[in-house]
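Input record, target 12 of the design panel.
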């Protein structure tokens, strides 16, 4: 199932069938042989001209690096295919946010060691109980955090200090050792079925929290080893931006965000949920079946996706991958949405409408999907007239941008 949510992170990109919209307005652009004249589409007040956002991130360079770090943290199914239920992921822009995943006493350490940014991802072998945000006690669940520091020395010191602070939270905590990773710092509370660990690796500190169904010391250590093996491999594939260059990171270097239809282009700044470009791991971390999502992204040639103000655009390697990506997202959209007639004059557009099984407090009433060459745009609204305009505008914007 793909969660189609109202605010914050847009977790779905999805769905393409053939359908259509009516109306006329003046839209920039000229027809290309074999394509419609997008100037005839009713786009309302949505801007659809070719556009580029300012590239200067200002003080938001660390935020952009944090978004990039979504590809530096392993997904749970990469650790073990049984851990297929994604529990989401998050950029950690500052120590105050990072302690959502660490002991509260860790915040001064992160500040003193000048934490740059971090990223966290979580998954389990079963879904969280209905209405709860914690794994079932009988689940195997893990949370992996990568914290970036200015240099390797800072990271090494931070790991030691974080471990001392964490183990000192309870007098019952005890150290554990890993023969495979002797530099890793592990601790648990005997009789409690979870383990925490820290490991410094170059300018990063990896933080792990692993929950298992039973409090077996050897089993917990073996799972730490398994997670570290996968995470170190993932981290070594990632190319961190040199610290001195983080402030110079470009906001939208491939002009993918500028192809997402929005109400207002002014004032857009990097934001992990509302204005960001992510790679494949971000989509996998939120999936209820991470294995199926990973296969879909691989088969479709998925490259990246841009999210802006509740809309999104995904890019695949070549046009042949777009139908594969869309069909897979349609299949995983869940039973809270039914097919809905799409605007008739938008080639290939497809729409869904929330039904009685959905939650209108959390989910939009309408969501439409707009394919164009290597791109799939996704727009949403609670208003039927607006969703028709957004659908037309997304097609026109993609056509005018290429």
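The sequence produced for target 12 reads:
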């Amino acid at each position: 199932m793909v969660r189609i949510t109202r605010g914050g992170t847009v977790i779905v990109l999805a769905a393409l069938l053939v359908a259509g919209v009516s109306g006329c307005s003046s839209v920039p652009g000229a027809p290309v042989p074999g394509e419609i004249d997008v100037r005839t589409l009713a786009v309302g007040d949505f801007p659809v001209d070719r556009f580029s956002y300012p590239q200067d991130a200002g003080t938001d360079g660390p935020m952009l690096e944090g978004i990039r770090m979504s590809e530096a943290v392993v997904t749970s199914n990469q650790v073990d295919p049984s851990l297929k239920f994604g529990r989401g992921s998050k950029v950690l822009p500052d120590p105050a946010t990072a302690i959502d995943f660490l002991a509260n006493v860790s915040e001064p350490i992160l500040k003193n060691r000048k934490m740059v940014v971090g990223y966290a991802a979580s998954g389990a072998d079963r879904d969280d109980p209905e209405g709860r945000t914690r794994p079932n006690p009988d689940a195997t669940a893990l949370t992996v955090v990568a914290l970036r520091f200015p240099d390797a020395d800072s990271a090494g010191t931070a790991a030691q200090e974080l471990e001392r602070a964490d183990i000192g939270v309870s007098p019952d905590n005890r150290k554990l050792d890993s023969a495979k990773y002797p530099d890793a710092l592990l601790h648990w509370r005997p009789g409690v079925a979870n383990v925490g660990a820290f490991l410094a690796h170059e300018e990063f500190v990896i933080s792990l929290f692993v929950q298992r169904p039973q409090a077996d010391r050897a089993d917990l250590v073996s799972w730490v080893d398994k997670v570290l093996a996968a995470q170190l491999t993932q981290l070594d594939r990632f190319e961190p931006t040199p610290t001195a260059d983080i402030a110079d990171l470009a906001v939208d270097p491939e002009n993918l965000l500028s192809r997402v239809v929005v109400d207002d282009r002014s004032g857009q700044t990097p934001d992990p949920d509302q204005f960001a470009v992510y790679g494949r791991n971000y989509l996998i971390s939120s999936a209820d079946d991470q294995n199926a999502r990973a296969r879909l992204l691989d088969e479709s040639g998925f490259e990246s996706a841009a999210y802006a103000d509740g809309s999104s655009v995904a890019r695949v390697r070549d046009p042949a991958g777009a139908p594969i990506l869309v069909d897979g997202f349609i299949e995983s959209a869940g039973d809270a949405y039914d097919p809905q007639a799409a605007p008739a004059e938008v080639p290939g557009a497809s729409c869904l409408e929330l039904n009685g099984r959905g939650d209108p407090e959390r989910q939009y009433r309408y969501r439409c999907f707009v394919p164009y060459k290597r791109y799939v745009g996704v727009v949403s609204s609670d208003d039927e007239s607006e969703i028709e305009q957004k659908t037309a505008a997304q097609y026109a914007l993609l056509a005018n941008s290429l």
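Confidence is low (pLDDT under 50) at residues 8-33.
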